[in-house]
Design goal:
Blueprint lengths: L16 E9 L7 E8 L4 E5 L6 H8 L8 E8 L2 E2 L5 H10 L1 E4 L13 H11 L6 H14 L5 H6 L7 H13 L5 E5 L7 H18 L2 E6 L2 H7 L2 E6 L2 E7 H6 L4 H8 L12
Parallel strand pairs: 3-8, 3-9, 6-7, 7-8
Antiparallel strand pairs: 1-2, 1-4, 4-5, 9-10
Helix pairs in contact: 3-4
Family: Belongs to the ABC transporter superfamily.
Keywords: ATP-binding, Cell membrane, Membrane, Nucleotide-binding, Transport
GO molecular function, one term: ATP binding
Length: 277
């Protein structure tokens, strides 16, 4: 049995996510992420915005401890006080899913096309010991799906991904990401492929999950309408560096950096009915 790697914790008041001096480099190119420091409290929301190529997804991969091949990473990423850089593959695998949930842009990348949704959630619950046994894990599935806003959870549990609509697949992927009660949820462009109304509903689901469970949300997007809907804190990433950060209302309505002002003038990617101020 291999020894458990040492984990550094800063006590019960540790933030859900703390990034300090994070730099990610690809060989022969300027840093994709350059000296980024961010902090996200439990139950809070942080939206990282920027145009394509600004380093958003690279930063998300670093938070998940899944760097692209060939990259070098310096600085630190702590989740719930645990420094991920000192952990081995087995410990990181335990943390992903149990303490960090991940929602990708395309839900088919996290859902097995050949297996029923209920079976996939059952296996995740068992893998991370979030249920005492298979019977309990199966019994928990409908409630997990209902929490993700799926109105017919028993039918969804029996369905395979291709039998669901796009919105249902995204909600199933969210259910899979949060079924073990993670401390942090990383959502990378989770609404891009959805129509405007579904985008708003998925964003509101994230807010409801934060309120109900206390998880922290790191939302990666280039859509300022989504950032306005989520509220909380917004950090603007430009060429791998933080150009501006602050409360969403201040950054999006009264930007202090010219780059943020340019982003705000671009046409919205999605309609934003009932956007929060």
């Amino acid at each position: 049995m291999t020894a458990r790697p040492a984990a550094t914790r800063s006590g019960p008041a540790a933030p859900a996510l703390e990034i300090t001096g994070l730099t990610v480099r690809h060989p022969g190119t300027p840093p994709a992420v350059d000296g980024v420091s961010l902090r996200l409290a439990a139950g809070a929301a942080l939206t990282l915005v920027g145009e394509s190529g600004s380093g958003k997804t690279t930063l998300a991969r670093a938070v998940l401890a899944l760097p692209a091949p060939g990259t070098t990473t310096t600085g630190s990423v702590r989740v719930d006080g645990t420094d991920l850089s000192g952990l081995g593959a087995r410990e990181l695998s335990r943390i992903r899913g149990r303490r960090i949930g991940y929602v990708p842009q395309d839900p088919t990348t996290s859902l097995d096309p050949l297996r029923r949704i209920g079976s996939q959630i059952t296996e995740v619950l068992l893998r991370h010991r979030a249920a005492p046994g298979r019977r309990a894990a199966r019994a928990a599935v409908p409630a997990v799906l209902a929490r993700a806003g799926l109105t017919d959870p028993h039918r969804i549990a029996r369905s395979r991904p291709h039998e669901l609509s796009g919105g249902q697949r995204q909600r199933a992927a969210i259910a899979l990401a949060v079924c073990c009660g993670p401390r942090l949820l990383v959502a990378d462009e989770p609404t891009t492929a959805l129509d405007p109304l579904l985008r708003v509903r998925i964003l509101d689901l994230f807010t409801a999950l934060r309120t109900e469970t206390g998880l922290a949300l790191l939302l990666i997007t280039h859509d300022l309408a989504a950032a306005r809907r989520i509220g909380g804190t917004v950090a603007v990433l430009r060429a791998g560096r933080i150009a501006e950060t602050g409360p969403a209302a201040d950054v999006l309505h009264r930007p202090s950096h010219p780059y943020t002002a340019d982003l705000a003038r671009l046409p919205a990617v999605a309609a934003d009915p009932g956007a929060r101020p």
